[in-house]
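--- STAGE predict ---
source: upstream dedup step, 1 unique chain passed
mode: sequence only
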Amino acid sequence: MGRHQINWKGELNLSGRRFAALVSGGGSTMKRIGDACLWGKLNNLIELVLVVASKPGIGAIEKARELGLPDDRIHVCNPRDYSTPKAFGQAIIGLFRRWGIEQIGQHGWLPLTPENVIEAYDGHIINQHPGPLDTGFPDFGGPGMYGRRVHCARLLYIQQTGRSEDLFTEATAHRVTPEFDRGSIIGWTSMPIRPDDTVESIQKVLLSAEHQLQIDVLEKVALGRRLKPLVRTHRLVPDDWVPLLEECKRLACLLYPNG
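--- STAGE serialize ---
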């Protein structure tokens, strides 16, 4: 376990950035990051201090307990419990300040992060997205695009365009802004799409790459390395194909109503 020691009952002896994970689902990425903090490449670099869930009863809460986090470091902060986005944001900021959070990751986090949270932690919130993005242009992000919906939209789009240059998908890490999936891209990893791939097969293969990408980006953050925004040399979706993209995203939401 190296120099990092856990003693939740006493003072924390932390040697790196204090990290909070925002979660809304199973928590598989949060668990992988937590393991990397304890025994892997993030040991002595990043400390998972706090987990904030957007709803009760999700798998991420149990995974946080498996990592050894006590209940006072696992909080449910449901946007439905607050009268305004600002009040929701103030509750989140209060938790971050209470535990001295320096870096935040959104891992399967479904709510739109309030603007006051983004202002308070500008440049220190990174979102995990399971598909290719193209900042400022039409892509496979935006409202409703999460989980299997993203894989479905990408697969439908590839099947309809029939272009060889589209036979891939990506996991993405990007800065968080007040709009869904619009922040600058700071990391991506690609996988080829095969003729026999399905939504489920893509999800299975890409998820591990998503986990590793988030860990790699956090390592760079902790080491003080500059994360230069990644910009595509060619548009992900040509102008003529934007209506098709929107239709694929619409169908994906219908086919996967629960994401």
